[in-house]
Amino acid sequence: MNPRRIAVLSLALLSLWPAAPAAAKFMPVHSARACGPTGCVPLPAGMVSQMLGRFEGGDTGNPGMRLGPFYRLHIRPQPGPSLLFYVPVSRMIVVNGQTLRVGRHHAARLDSALRDLQPIPPRIESVTVGAHPAAHPLAYMPLLFGRPVYPPASVWNHRDVLIAIDLAGESPWSYWGGAEYFPSVRLLHVPDGVWVRVGAAQAAMIASDLHPGGRAGHGGSASPATVAAVVAVAIAIAAMLVVALRRRPWRRARVA
């Protein structure tokens, strides 16, 4: 087939591919607040209006937003249904799945306003490995916080396994795609675009979930690899809490 015809057909197919809802057009914000699991705090309306106005100029994209605690943003007036979030670890505002990196000056002002408000921790609701549900979905959380690595160009020559990771509730990652896992090189392409190395115990857990027929031993007990992975997730979550508490001394409001 003519190469030019192939290119035209490819563009036509891409135009039919479903996309996340577009970011809404924003009028000047009269009031804004950020909410966490324990309450809300007001934000400077002028600053929020200035940041959201950048979406109208098309300065959006997805440069790689790491998973982390987040805040839900509420503004007035709000033109139509919109999901607004702020992710401090990536300095990103998320509007209906589209991301916008916040400048250092605005990020510092946001961090100051949010200093005493605990953020919402992301929670895994379900994990599907291939066509099978994972036995212990929470054990996949450490993989999403793994240290980024640079994969070799030959990684795409290896067979991959799709891992669908669904987070609970509405979050900045509601429009995530599936993660790609390459068993032969133990590399995971996380939906945020980062590559992480999978440890031996985690690789065994993924293999067990991919082939659930050999998951359990006598009496349906969990495999040692699964037990190790569950212990690893508990340690990882504890470490995340320690780091978060050191970086931001959240305090409970005093009751008069």
Give structural notes.
- The protein has 256 residues and is an alpha+beta fold.
- 29% of the residues lie in helices and 21% in strands.
- The chain has a six-stranded antiparallel sheet, covered by helices on one side. It has a six-stranded antiparallel sheet with strand order 8-7-9-10-11-12.
- Strand 4 (84-87) and strand 5 (92-95) form a beta hairpin.
- Helix 5 (200-210) packs across helix 6 (224-247).
- The radius of gyration is 21 Å and the shape is elongated.
Report a brief summary of the structure:
The chain has helices spanning 3-16, 45-56, 104-113, 141-144, 200-210, 224-247; strands at residues 31-36, 39-43, 71-76, 84-87, 92-95, 98-101, 124-129, 132-133, 161-167, 179-182, 187-189, 195-197.
Cα shape:
elongated
Q: Segments where pLDDT lies below 50 for 5+ residues?
A: 3-24, 57-63, 216-222, 240-256
Nearest-integer average pLDDT: 74
Topology as H/E string? HEEHEEEEHEEHEEEEHH
Please report the total strand number as a whole number.
Answer: 12
Strand order of the largest sheet: 2-1-3-4-5-6
Q: Considering DSSP H and I runs of 4 or more, what fraction of the residues is helical?
A: 25-40%
Amino- and carboxy-terminal Cα gap: 77 Å
Described by strand count, sense and barrel closure, the largest sheet is: 6 strands, antiparallel
Going by helix content, strand content and strand pairing, the class is: alpha+beta
Rg calc: 21 Å
Tally the helices: 6
User: What fraction strand?
Assistant: 15-25%
